[in-house]
Amino acid sequence: MKLVYTGKTKNVYELEDGNYLLAFKDDVTGENGVFDPGANTVGLTIEGAGRAGLRLTKLFFEVLKEKDIPTHYVDANIEEATMTVKPATVFGKGLEVICRYRAVGSFLRRYGLYVEEGAELDAFVEVTIKDDGRQDPPISEDALAMLGLLTKEEYQVLKNLTQEIGGVVKEELAKKGIDLYDIKFEFGRVEGGQIVLIDEISGGNMRAYKDGQYIEPLELEKLMLL
Ligand SMILES: Nc1ncnc2c1ncn2[C@@H]1O[C@H](COP(=O)(O)OP(=O)(O)OP(=O)(O)O)[C@@H](O)[C@H]1O
Ligand SMILES: [Mg+2]
């Protein structure tokens, strides 16, 4: 097994058969020892956090598979905290695609002059560039095309997949009385050229609320897997 990438919350290995193995770590992002899913630095280590994130990821990727939505998922081993996936190439050095159902977080910080906190949004899609040094800046469809990161056609594919997958996650959460406020995804291209969902879908990738109260990632994982 060859280590190909050491991430903040996962390590990526290449398997003999060419697939990748994502090893989920107990390191979580945050600042000054305080858990913050949106942060770009590893803040602390929580025993069992990796396995919890993988359990939720496995649940969502298996629902997506049933619905024939294309992802990199092959299988998952909870005991070992690993997930086998198809290797993908990302756009540029990686993009994040966000789907928003409520005005919170960075959307509210940017547009607070025109929108009230918690206002409903209709699966609003935004793209950000993975660039820790520049705090993952948002980027427009035109800028993505101009910089050669995504063609207009690819943007449409990503946007449609994002709204479709966001809808699936929202529906799964709703079954447990949980509201999805926003969620972020990563996409890549697999062998043959198809654009698929990659990476993970865990508590750290979304904001979820129950009865108006924010639910921490580890708590979300418990509620969803009950
Ligand atoms: N199928 C795949 N093929 C290739 N790379 C993948 C695949 N799935 C996930 N990745 C990449 O593996 C890495 C996983 O590491 P990790 O989640 O720790 O991310 P990171 O980029 O360090 O930090 P952050 O999650 O804050 O962006 C990410 O860079 C992700 O884009
Ligand atoms: Mg990541």
Q: What is the overall silhouette?
A: globular
Judged by helices, strands and strand pairing, the structural class is alpha+beta
Total count of helical runs of at least 4 residues: 5
CATH architecture of the largest domain: 2-Layer Sandwich
| CATH level 1 name of the largest domain | Alpha Beta
Helix content range: 25-40%
First-to-last CA distance: 34 Å
**Strand elements, count:** 15
According to CATH, the fold-level topology of the largest domain is D-amino Acid Aminotransferase, Chain A, domain 1
Q: Mean pLDDT across all residues, rounded?
A: 95
The oligomeric state of the chains shown is: single chain
Catalytic activity: 5-amino-1-(5-phospho-D-ribosyl)imidazole-4-carboxylate + L-aspartate + ATP = (2S)-2-[5-amino-1-(5-phospho-beta-D-ribosyl)imidazole-4-carboxamido]succinate + ADP + phosphate + 2 H(+)
Keywords: ATP-binding, Ligase, Nucleotide-binding, Purine biosynthesis
Enzyme class: ligase
Pathway: Purine metabolism; IMP biosynthesis via de novo pathway; 5-amino-1-(5-phospho-D-ribosyl)imidazole-4-carboxamide from 5-amino-1-(5-phospho-D-ribosyl)imidazole-4-carboxylate: step 1/2
Structure report:
By secondary structure, the protein is α+β, with helices and mostly antiparallel strands. The chain folds into 2 domains: 2-85, Phosphorylase Kinase, domain 1; 95-225, 2-Layer Sandwich (D-amino Acid Aminotransferase, Chain A, domain 1), CATH 3.30.470.20. It has 5 helices and 15 strands. It has helices at 49-66, 105-111, 141-146, 152-174, 217-225; strands spanning 2-6, 10-14, 20-24, 27-31, 34-35, 42-45, 73-77, 82-85, 95-102, 120-129, 138-139, 179-189, 195-198, 206-210, 213-215. Strands 9, 10, 11, 12, 13, 14 and 15 form a 7-stranded antiparallel beta sheet that branches. A 5-stranded antiparallel beta sheet has the order 1-2-3-8-7, with helices on one face. It has a 3-stranded antiparallel beta sheet with strand order 5-4-6, with no helix packed on it. Strand 10 and strand 11 form a beta hairpin. Helix 1 (49-66) packs across helix 5 (217-225). 31% of the residues are buried. Residues 4-214 form the SAICAR synthetase/ADE2 N-terminal domain.
